[in-house]
Each structure stands twice: as C-alpha cells, then as structure tokens.
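pls ignore typos typing on phone
GN1 + seq
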Amino acid sequence: MDPKEQYRQACKAFFGNEPIADITPYGEGHINTTMLVCINSTRYILQRMNTTVFPSPDDVMHNIYGVTSHLRAKGKETLEVVPTINGELYCKHETGCYRLYRFIENTVTYQSCPDAKTLYYAGKAFGEFQNDLCDFEVSSLKEIIPDFHNTPKRFEAFEKAVQDDACKRLAGCVGEVQFVMQRKNTYSGIVDALACGAIPVRITHNDTKLNNILMDRDTNKARAIIDLDTVMPGSLLYDFGDAIRFGASTGAEDEKELALIRFDIEAFKAYADGYLEALRGSITEQETELMPYSAYLMTMECGMRFLTDYLAGDVYFSTRYPDHNLVRCRTQFKLASEMEKQFDTMKHICYAAVRKQNKPEV
Ligand code: ADP
Ligand code: GN1
Ligand code: MG
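k done
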C-alpha cells in the first residue's frame, strides 16, 4: 500500500470519512513515523508507533494518558491524545498502531541549540516537568523499556554487535570502537549510585533532547514537553545528562564536519541554571556531584547506541543514508572527549547554581 494511503486509512479510525485536506511527513524524530494531518482546518500529529521499540502500545498509551492528565490538572500545556471514534487511545490497523495528538500551534522545535537563553528555558521546562511528576503515583506507571539508561548493559550490547559484525562494517569504524572500549570502566557510575541508594529513583522523561520540547514561536519560552513514550522511573541525572549531550553542542547531532562540534560550556551553564532554578533545591548533594559526569555518560551511551546500530545494520534508529549512525556517533564522541577535560568547570557551575537556590531569601 502507498505509504500515504496507510495514514489515510488510519485516519478513518479517528475521523470516519471526513475529508483529509493534507498529510505530510513531519519532524526529525528517530523512532516513530510522524505525519502532520489537516482535517476540517484543524492540524493534528498522527504517529505510527514503532512497535519494535515499543512492543506494548497499550502500556505506552496508558503512561502517556496518565502523565498528561496529571500535568493538565496542574495547569500545564501538554500533549492531548485524541481518541478514536470508539474511544480508544490508539488504533490498531493492519499496517501498524497509530495515535493522534492535537497539533500544538505556534511552536518550534530545534535540531541544535540556537542560543544559551533557549537552553535556559529548556532547562527550566524539564526541571518543572520533574517537579510536576514528583507526586505522580509511581506504581501506576508501566516500565516501557527496561534498562533504557543502564549504560553497562548498553555496553554489553555494543560488545556483542562488535563481535557479531553482522554487516561487515567493523573494519570501517575501528577507531570509534576503540574509543568506547578504552572507557569501559567509566560506565557504571549512575546505575551503581541508584543500586546502593546513594541517589533516589524519580519519575523521569528519559529522552530530554531539545527537539522533544515545543518552544513558543514568539517568546521562545518552552510551551510543552513532548515525546512522553519513555516516561519511567529513573534518575534525574539521565534527564540532565541527555539534555546536555544534545543541547550543549555547537552543532547538530549528525553534523559531518567535526570541527563544528564543540562542547559549549555557556550552554551547559544556561541549562544547569534553568534546571536547578526549577528544581528549587530538591536535588541532593550526590546528584549535584554527579551532574557533570552524567553529561559525559549520557553522551557516551548515546554514541555507543548509534555505533551499535551502525554495526547491526541500522535496525533501531531511522537513518537517511548508509553512514548516518556512524556520523552521529562521531559527534557524540567528540563532545564526550571535550567534556572529559572540563569536569572541574562543570562542577563549579553546578555547585554555584545549587548554592544560589539554597540561599535564604532576605
Ligand atoms: P519520535 O519519538 O520519533 O522522536 P516525537 O513524538 O518526538 O517522535 O515527534 C517528532 C516531532 O514531531 C517532534 O520533534 C516535534 O517537532 C513534532 N511534534 C510531535 N508532537 C507534536 C505536537 N503535538 N504538536 C506539534 N508538534 C509535534
Ligand atoms: C531517540 O525518539 P527520539 O528521536 O526523540 C531515542 C533516544 C536517543 C535519541 C538520539 C526511544 O529519541 O533514546 O537518545 O533518539 N529514543 C528511544 O537522538 O530510543
Ligand atoms: Mg522525539
């Protein structure tokens, strides 16, 4: 079936035979297939969910419905799930599972950070998101992808992909593979801290890159946190680190010219300021201590996931050309190697931002 026709058919579950004015691919997500649909002069986001990555769409939609209801009750702008005509949260069609959101108008998403102020607003938004979910009932959340940010397990998967070399691509990425191998002793800092209770388990977003926030087109302030597929129990360090790996880079995640990729310490400061301001002192000492490391770790983890997928034949992330995952992993490793040299400065920034929040008001 013609791909567009699949989406037209899926629309029937939500709109019956209403005429569809327009249907076009939208956004830069790596996981779901996203379409912008216009019906009766109203715009919607129609997504075919990636059921390889998310084998239980029921669980994903259960979490999203719960989390968005919770946020809306607190007056927050959030994703609005449009149910099917039969009242279901998504539709199962012969070509896949589809869900529909209202399009949040007058917003933009960034594929790389335009300026530090934008990252400050992003940090504030994710900090508020963290706060807003601190009274959400954990037991009502399904665990969508177990061990999602378990970096040692991600490393095991990487080692296996190297051993298998399923697509005979290893010879072309020996330097990148060595880069990951040489750092194998650095990957367990957050899982160890969680396991021994040194840092708390919280409800986290787990995919905090800048293009998962809708910013207001006029004010540039954050309007809504989107891509709620991976909201699960985790560490706030996953959210902080992942936001930095994407937002505090001077280039896009798939920039081929590595000279353009630098770790931007001003952007790091802006995000940390916004995030810690929104957390209003609820971060612990151990979490603060690990903030710089989390930025490095989430960057390495993402890089090794891209490289794993490259070796496995691009079976997980969507790619637009054969070396796309290899290009992506290189930007991550460039960033990680720059971060390694700036831990002290980063630590200083984080502690200064925390102190500012803890200072009693006069
Ligand atoms: P993926 O899981 O593939 O990353 P996302 O849910 O992040 O998919 O959606 C991809 C892109 O679509 C986002 O980066 C954003 O630009 C856009 N988008 C998603 N939902 C909405 C919405 N409700 N309103 C406006 N834009 C949206
Ligand atoms: C994926 O769905 P998207 O494009 O927002 C991935 C993240 C990665 C990110 C890298 C469920 O995010 O974990 O960090 O790509 N999401 C999933 O850009 O694996
Ligand atoms: Mg996304």
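The mean pLDDT is 96. The CA atoms of residues 43 and 196 lie 48 Å apart. more later
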